[in-house]
Design a protein that fits this description.
alpha/beta, 15 helices
Length: 458
């Protein structure tokens, strides 16, 4: 299927996953620095202290992007590099680094797409309550103003907060990501403050002259485990929590199903900030989700058939829904189902659900981990090529159905620190030899995407 010549193709990364240099240039500590020091928190006991060392090798990575032929590069600014304690004094060296980074991209003909917060919160703010505290949202707005004042004249699109739903669920409800808090439904306060931070940052960026502001929300189509009423109801609840609770405050200025009544206030005034109009809506997609009622016959049968599926982690006993494996002919190395049709379904669903309140969409993350083997001086990652080919076709199918999708960003340019999985999962178009000085080796998928971009450009 075809995509137009002006369709934006790019790659995505995140600061803590690639930069390293955690003590370089005046950077302060982050919640991920702290979380990685917890025994057993990271699968292989590693951290992002060095990662891909992109802090020192930015120019090398820009050359990889130039060779790939992408239109844009989505990366994140590390808040602790700009304000080591999360507020107050600005670290000039940190701003200078990102200033040079943006200029290097522009000189290579690559549009900078910038995320302000990809989960690495300054530790000093976490000590004051982190995203459970309203003050963090207020400090985030101030931080956005600082970065915007320096970079707004050159950044193509800003995304204030990456995947607030994942940071809420994994970081504050389940405790399997930083900051490692297992608060259950109490974590909804963090969700509200993340959304408020998004709104305050949007206002600050516009005041600084930002040309375009969007989002980077994680979305998944949700399917019930069966047609039984209990499973359908459980799936609807999960859809509300994962999808609607983070989209509708931004797009509609309201929480779904009365959720606003349980949020820390003043909720109506906050929603007016959260729903600042956007220029683009970012969608991060990896796979569909299958949900049922705990203990239902469909859930019991599905878990018995695939008790260790990665896409269906065990949840606390008091959670009123259960995740069960999605049937798929192929899975990633992570165990996630490969389901490109789910991306088409999701994009159409967003269009149908929100109509003219939905800005133009960019797929701001989409990619897969594969079992990479270095041979013949490269990696023959045919599975990643199949994945990307199918998902680009899925975007084209959504466009043919009338959805205004204008870009697709591959996760990720580089193999990197994959959060709680450490270095056990490789998502990159470029292999990084972590035990050999960070050497970059473009994979077959890099060459394939380069050729696909050339064909799209005509």
């Amino acid at each position: 299927m075809t995509l137009p010549a002006d369709f934006v193709l790019g790659t995505s990364t995140a600061s803590y996953q690639i930069e390293g240099g955690v003590t370089a240039g005046g950077r302060g500590r982050s919640t991920w620095d702290d979380f990685c020091e917890r025994p057993g928190a990271i699968r292989d006991g590693s951290s992002g202290a060095v990662a891909c060392d992109s802090f020192h090798r930015w120019d090398e990575d820009v050359e990889l992007l130039r060779g790939l032929g992408v239109d844009a590069y989505r990366f994140s600014v590390a808040w602790p590099r700009i304000q080591p304690t999360g507020s107050g004094t600005v670290n000039a060296a940190g701003l200078d680094f990102y200033d040079r980074a943006v200029d290097a991209l522009l000189e290579a003909g690559i549009a900078p797409f910038v995320t302000l917060h990809h989960w690495d919160l300054p530790s000093a703010l976490q000590a004051k309550g982190g995203w459970m505290a309203r003050e963090t949202a207020e400090r985030f707005g101030e931080y956005a103003a600082v970065v915007g004042e320096r970079l707004a004249d050159r950044v193509a699109l800003w995304m204030p907060v990456n995947e607030p739903v994942v940071l809420t669920l994994f970081g504050h409800a389940l405790g399997i990501h930083a900051p490692g808090e297992a608060r259950g439904f109490e974590a909804l306060s963090a969700a509200h403050h993340l959304l408020l931070g998004h709104g305050l940052a949007t206002r600050a960026l516009r005041a600084a002259g930002a040309r375009a502001v969007g989002t980077a929300n994680n979305h998944t189509p949700v399917h019930p485990a069966s047609d039984a009423d209990e499973d359908v109801s459980a799936a609807a609840l999960y859809d509300t929590i994962h999808n609607r609770a983070f989209a509708e405050p931004v797009l509609l200025g309201e929480y779904p199903n009365g959720m606003g009544e349980g949020m820390p206030g003043p909720v109506p005034e906050d929603l007016a900030v959260i729903s600042e109009p956007l220029d683009a809506y970012g969608v991060n997609y990896y796979n569909p989700t299958r949900v049922g009622a705990p203990g239902s016959s469909a859930v019991t049968a599905a878990l018995a058939a695939a008790p260790s599926a990665v896409d269906a982690p065990e949840l606390p006993a008091d959670i009123p829904f259960a995740l069960v494996p999605v049937e798929a002919a192929e899975r990633t190395a992570f165990g996630w189902p490969v389901a490109p049709e789910g991306l088409t379904e999701l994009l159409v669903q967003l269009r149908d659900r929100y109509g003219d309140r939905l800005p133009p969409i960019h797929v701001t993350e989409s990619g897969c981990s594969t079992d990479d083997v270095l041979e013949d001086g490269t990696v023959h990652d045919d599975a990643r090529i199949r994945y990307l080919d199918a998902h680009l076709d899925a975007v084209a199918a959504a466009r043919e159905d009338g959805v205004d999708v204008r870009g697709y960003f591959v996760w990720s340019l580089l193999d990197n620190f994959e959060w709680a999985e450490g270095y056990t999962q490789r998502f990159g178009l470029v292999r990084v030899e972590f035990d050999a000085g960070g050497t970059r080796i473009p994979k077959d998928s890099y060459a394939w995407l380069r050729d696909r971009i050339t064909r799209i450009r005509g």
